[in-house]
Predict the structure.
Amino acid sequence: MNEKKVRVLLADDHELVRAGVRKVLENSPGFEVVGEASRGDETLAKLAELEPDVLLLDLNMPGGDGFEVLRSARDTAGGARIVVLSLHVQAEYVSRAVREGADGYLSKDLAAQELPDAIASVMAGKPWYSAAVQEVLAKVVRTGGTRPLEKLTPREREVLVGIARGLTSKEIGSQFNISARTVETHRAALMRKLDVRSIALLTQLAIREGLVEGPV
């Protein structure tokens, strides 16, 4: 009698990534890819329709913020395990994904080698994290969970995102209905709290912490 296969839903906006993951799973016994999605909203619809055992989720897709999709998937997955596949292994991404309920977190660079074992692990009720992700989580624990962005107010985070996206103080102010002078005050507070001395370094930090994507 054949063993029941683990039913997997792939969610990633890059067709080549989905094709590569599908090939890995099809070449491994015990897995069946039951569907694919390239958008956040599509992911949630297919999750409800197909009721997979495991959702492999990229956090950077159109059609919904990745963490909102993760949170909604956790609430509606009906027991499906959720494994994040991401290029981002920064503390901001990893720790938030774990808080939002991810059962596993893999770097896309290592997906081909680790994916079958990762799925088997989460199906057995045990979390699975890539080595780089484990290092990030260990650092968060050692520092008491304190990360640079936790020092910021919500408005300062919003201003930081605007700066990292190359917006002027006037453009950021217009977006949040505050004056350019107020934006500059927030920028000075950001530099003081984060101990950086230039817009370029603020931008690098925002990219490193996963607030914005870096250049491709």
